[in-house]
Design a protein that fits this description.
The chain is α/β, with parallel strands linked by helices. The protein has two domains: about 5-215 and about 345-370, Rossmann fold, CATH 3.40.50.150; about 230-315, no CATH class. About 30% of the residues lie in helices and about 20% in strands. The chain contains eleven helices and eleven strands. The protein has a seven-stranded mixed beta sheet, with helices on both faces. Strand 10 and strand 11 (about 310-315) form a beta hairpin. Helix 9 (about 320-325) runs parallel beside helix 10 (about 335-345). The longest helix is centred in the last third of the chain and has 22 residues, at about 350-370. The N and C termini lie close together (about 10 Å).
């Protein structure tokens, strides 16, 4: 079987998982609670398969009767993020995972369980409640007959943005792993979390040996809008004053060295000598930091330009943020920058999804069909 594969997209947002899966996949159903995100989804893909409302209110009567090849769930991360209060999967927002899982259980009971499942979230899921939340997801997948693996993938391998995310992959066929021994590249947090699994779940654990090769061809300087207006010098001085002495020294060296340099930065609260301080942290390695939704007060990315001994700064535009996520310029963004950045910050990087589909999902589904 070479496609089209079929999929259900839960917590669909702007459809970035759909973009990543690509033309060899056909959407049977998509859902998101946020009305603004549904408008963006419809603007880019149409609304034929798009359903609104709270996932906890959905039943399998709302889902297609056809058995899907894949259920994708980019479930809310706020209660799992290291930047949040870390209430875990039991908290209100990230607890939406259980609304999704209730539907999977109902589909399984009806003989219509998807052949593969991906649960995507922040890497903080590995350490939430000392690994118990991650183990809970894996245990549920294994108990329903899925072979399970997980990968921590950074969008920086594909696009000019540092964005680490966890992908838990389950497949009915024992075909998702190519490595029997523990992966030497696995994050220590994943290895620790696996110790929380029951013996029954560990029997269904598999390792995916593949890792992305260096595919990124663009740096932050390649995605910038040359027409964007830089801010007054006084605003730049305020930002640079928030740098640590070490960072100011490094910035001064770049200025003194001449040439043009483009970087990115954002405000962060750091605890220094027991005191919380607001810092402006810059990087000049070709990447932006992780683009986050502005909801909840997260700092926006700032573009830093050094040229002819002058340092200028400005906020990254929504279109630039979309490019840093791997979205083409024909992707329709919300008109308001705040809404567009919320959509992007809550999304998944499409090139990462494409790599995962090519590496694990499509081969596993094809092998299952060939075996059948």
């Amino acid at each position: 079987m070479t496609g089209p594969f079929t999929f259900l997209e839960f917590f669909a947002g702007g459809g970035m998982a759909r973009l990543g899966l690509g033309g060899g996949w056909r959407c049977l159903f998509a859902n998101d609670f946020d009305a603004g995100k549904r408008v963006a989804y419809g603007a880019n893909f149409g609304s034929d398969h798009l359903h609104g409302g709270d996932i906890h209110a959905l039943t399998i009567a709302d889902l297609p009767h056809q058995t899907a090849d894949l259920a994708w769930a980019s479930s809310p991360c706020q209660d799992l993020s290291l930047a949040g209060a870390r209430g875990g999967l039991g908290a209100a927002r990230s607890g939406a995972f259980f609304g999704f899982w209730r539907l999977i259980e109902a589909l399984d009971d009806a003989g219509r369980a998807p052949r593969a499942i991906v649960v995507e979230n922040v890497a903080g899921l590995l350490t939430s409640h000392d690994g118990a939340d991650f183990a809970g997801v894996v245990e549920r997948l294994a108990a329903r007959g899925y072979f399970v693996s997980a990968l921590a993938l950074n969008a920086a391998d594909f696009v000019p943005q540092s964005r680490l995310r966890l992908f838990i992959v389950g497949a009915r066929a024992d075909a998702i792993g190519a490595c029997a021994a523990a992966d030497p590249l696995a994050p220590p947090a994943l290895l620790r979390a696996l110790t929380r699994l029951s013996p029954q779940a560990m029997k269904r654990w598999r390792w995916i040996a593949a890792r992305p090769s260096a595919q990124r061809t663009a740096s932050i300087g390649d995605i910038l809008d040359e027409r964007a207006v830089f801010e007054p010098a006084a605003e730049t001085r305020k930002r640079l004053a928030l740098m640590t002495p070490r960072q100011r020294t490094a910035l001064a060296a770049l200025v003194a060295g001449g040439g043009r340099h483009t970087g990115a930065g954002y405000r962060r609260v750091r605890v220094e000598d027991g005191v919380k301080r607001v810092r402006f942290e810059a990087r000049f390695d070709g990447l932006s930091g992780c683009i986050r939704t502005p909801a909840g007060g997260s700092s926006r990315q700032v573009v830093i330009a050094i040229d002819q001994g002058r340092v200028r700064t400005r906020l990254m535009t929504a279109r630039e943020a979309a490019r840093a996520m791997g979205l083409a310029d024909d992707y329709v963004l919300p008109a308001r920058a705040t809404n567009a950045l919320k959509l992007i910050g809550d999304g998944v990087c499409p090139p990462v999804v494409r790599w995962l589909a090519e590496t694990a999902l499509e081969p596993a589904l094809a092998r299952r069909c060939a075996a059948a």
